[in-house]
Amino acid sequence: MDRLDAMSVLLAVVEAGSLSAGARHLRAPLATVSRKVAELEQHLGTRLLVRTSRRLALTDAGRSFVAASRRLLGQLE
Prior knowledge:
The protein has about 80 residues and is mostly helical. It has helices spanning about 5-15, 20-25, 30-45, 60-75, and strands at about 50, 55-60. Strand 1 (about 50) and strand 2 form a beta hairpin.
């Protein structure tokens, strides 16, 4: 798994507000986006997102990870 790519995918999902909207923004299949987020969660050993049929919410760990990812990816740019 490319962790930087997975971080970018997670940020796109969070900023778009849903997995579907994130996938559209990235022009990637929904299944790919969902798999990358799930693999990242598995790698970290914690849930980053709470998914329901109506909404997507960050867990506490997710909020921390998203903030760190934004800083890291911003520095890499």
